[in-house]
Amino acid sequence: MKRSTKIIAGTAFAAAVAAGAGVAAAGGSDDSGEGPDVPITGDALEQAERAALAETGGGRVTGTEVGDEESYYEVEVTLDDGSQVDVQLDEDFAVVGSDADVEDDDAGAD
């Protein structure tokens, strides 16, 4: 193989590897295909917290997200017993759903 052909082939290979790495880095390490979580801030945070805590009957807010895949806002509430509930809110802070955030402890069990 000629030297110039080897250089071109090597450069093309390096470019392909770099492009693949760039796509992988842009996609992040989360396999779900979601973008980065954006927390709720300002007055919206206060309203979302009030709505979520009213829905759960208490607890403490341990996470928030704007633009959740299930609703406009998501508020994670940790209850006094340590369990977690994800409360889904629309743009007007009305509850559109809530579910217990349960880890599947039997994932590997038969």
UniProtKB/TrEMBL annotation:
Protein name per Swiss-Prot or TrEMBL:
Peptidase propeptide and YPEB domain-containing protein
State the signal peptide span. 1-26
Instruction: Specify the superkingdom.
Output: Bacteria
- Its source organism is Blastococcus jejuensis
Sorted keywords for this record are: Signal
